[in-house]
Amino acid sequence: MHIPRYYRKPGWQRFLVGIFFGALISYWIVLFMYGTMYERLLEENSKIQQKLNNAENKILALEKDNVDLNEKSKQKITVEEIDLVILNAEELKIDTLLQHQLEGLVKEEIQDIIGRDVASLTESDSLIISSIENKTFRVDDFTYYFVIERLIISPTIRIVVKAKVSN
């Protein structure tokens, strides 16, 4: 049997060239579609992986905070610092040096509460108030006494007072 020579006929040549270029174009289209699909999937995968890493980091941080809070809840909170604010220092024309001296005297009066448990101090806050209000503080030629306006008990005890000068 003899195979006819189709490659010499122009109709068959156009048909075979059309099949060849059609195959090339369709191959490029499939490659383009596969590449864009794969790129989109990789982007989506990276976003999901990033969200997963963020969630794992949050879980680890929360677990660590939980352990720290459990340890802190076992420990008692103690007083670390005393902060004293004189409200009417400008009205009485108290300069900063005198103000620091007065703050030092008041802090010296109640310095034994540093290191004590905050829970025990909340029960005896009237003792702190009376120890400050019932004491007079002498600086230079003036005698000062204080009226407590606000007392905040936390690891840093904040005492807001009004100073009065006695003659």
Outline of the structure:
The chain is an alpha+beta fold and 167 residues long. The chain has 4 helices and 4 strands. Strand 2 and strand 3 (142-152) form a beta hairpin.
Number of helices: 4
First-last Cα distance: 138 Å
Rg over CA atoms, rounded to whole Å, is 42 Å
| Quaternary | single chain
Largest sheet: 4 strands, mixed
Number of strands: 4
Shape: rod-shaped
Mean model confidence by pLDDT? 88
H and E order: HEHHHEEE
The main sheet orders its strands as 1-4-3-2
Helical content stands at: 55-70%
Uncertain spans: none
Topology overview:
Layout: H1 10-74, E1 81-86, H2 96-109, H3 118-123, H4 125-133, E2 137-139, E3 142-152, E4 156-166
Parallel strand pairs: 1-4
Antiparallel strand pairs: 2-3, 3-4
